[in-house]
């Protein structure tokens, strides 16, 4: 449970909802799934409005799911815990681990948002190649709803007491007792609120039917989210000990390619008035 003291909030929420038929439900999984469902709902509205068939919508969900999962998992394992996973490569895709000589189900502990983005882009390229739909249009539609899913995923991180902020003495500091007893920035909330606000702004622009060129939403989301992510890392605790020796942490390094590529996409699709297919 969570309760507040004079200067900070003490956060001690149980990440597990309960066990049903031998399966443990966690808040993270529920919020992750709910976020994807919400994003999927708004994406369905866009597809329906654009006259894209139900079959193509469902196919994109399948491509997107596998792209997000594979990208998020592989990037986390290779960039955040390479030593372990290169020695236990089968655990990258299998939700099991060898503990005391026994194979134990542990779930997928470690997903990287930067990898999810890269995996989704690859999945969309394959999807558009198979369906002959316009790449930039599909990318834009997904970009509009992506921040909504991201916001709920960060709330899941909050319920897990993970991706905590750096120590601070601000009045709204939170003590994540499942992590330590130090008041910290509620970095998960900062990100969640930002992503929700970005989704609302993008949805308003889309609903106003403003005249924007192909690639607008994709480039804006790539640059805005990753710029925010780059700077929010300064008020977050590092995820892995080796990052303490780095000038920029892993999240910042992985954000830079998105900022650069997103800026180039914006330049060539908006300023040059070119429509790429």
Mean pLDDT: 89
SSE sequence, one letter per element = EEEEHHHEEHHEEHHH
C-alpha end-to-end distance: 51 Å
Strand content: 5-15%
Backbone shape: globular
Structural class: alpha+beta
Number of helices: 8
Low-pLDDT runs: none
Structure write-up:
There is one protein chain. The chain has 277 residues and is of the alpha+beta class. The chain has a domain of 80 residues. Strands 1-2-7-8 form a four-stranded mixed beta sheet, with no helix packed on it. Strand 5 and strand 6 form a beta hairpin. Helix 1 packs antiparallel against helix 5, helix 5 runs antiparallel to helix 6 and helix 7 runs antiparallel to helix 8.
Topology of helices and strands:
Elements: E1 2-4, E2 8-11, E3 16-20, E4 23-26, H1 27-50, H2 54-80, H3 82-87, E5 96-99, E6 102-105, H4 113-131, H5 135-159, E7 173-176, E8 183-184, H6 187-207, H7 216-232, H8 250-271
Parallel strand pairs: 2-7
Antiparallel strand pairs: 1-2, 3-4, 5-6, 7-8
Helix pairs in contact: 1-5, 2-4, 4-5, 5-6, 5-7, 6-7, 7-8
């Amino acid at each position: 449970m969570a309760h507040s003291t004079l200067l900070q909030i003490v956060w001690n929420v149980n990440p597990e909802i309960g066990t049903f038929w031998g399966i443990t439900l966690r808040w993270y999984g529920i919020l992750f799934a709910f976020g994807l469902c919400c994003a999927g709902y708004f994406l369905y509205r866009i597809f329906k409005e654009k006259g894209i068939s139900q079959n193509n919508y469902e196919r994109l969900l399948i491509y997107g799911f596998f792209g997000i999962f594979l990208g998020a998992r592989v990037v986390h394992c290779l960039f955040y815990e390479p030593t372990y996973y290169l020695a236990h490569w089968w655990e990258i895709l299998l939700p099991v681990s060898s503990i005391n000589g026994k194979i134990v189900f542990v779930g997928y502990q470690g997903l990287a948002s930067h990898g999810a983005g890269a995996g989704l882009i690859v999945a969309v390229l394959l999807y558009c190649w198979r369906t002959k739909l316009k790449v930039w249009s599909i990318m834009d539609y997904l970009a509009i709803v992506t921040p909504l899913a991201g916001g709920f995923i960060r709330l899941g991180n909050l319920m897990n007491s993970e991706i905590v902020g750096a120590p601070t003495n601000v009045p709204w500091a939170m003590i994540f007792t499942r992590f330590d007893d130090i008041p910290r920035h509620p970095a998960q909330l900062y990100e969640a609120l930002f992503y929700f606000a970005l989704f609302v702004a993008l949805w308003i622009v889309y609903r106003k039917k403003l005249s924007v060129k192909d690639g607008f939403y994709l480039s804006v989301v790539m640059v805005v989210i990753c710029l925010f992510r780059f700077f929010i890392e300064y008020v977050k605790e590092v995820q892995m000990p080796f990052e303490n020796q780095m000038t920029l942490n892993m999240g910042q390094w992985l954000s830079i390619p998105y900022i650069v590529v997103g800026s180039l996409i914006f330049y060539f699709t908006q300023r040059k008035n070119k429509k790429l297919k």
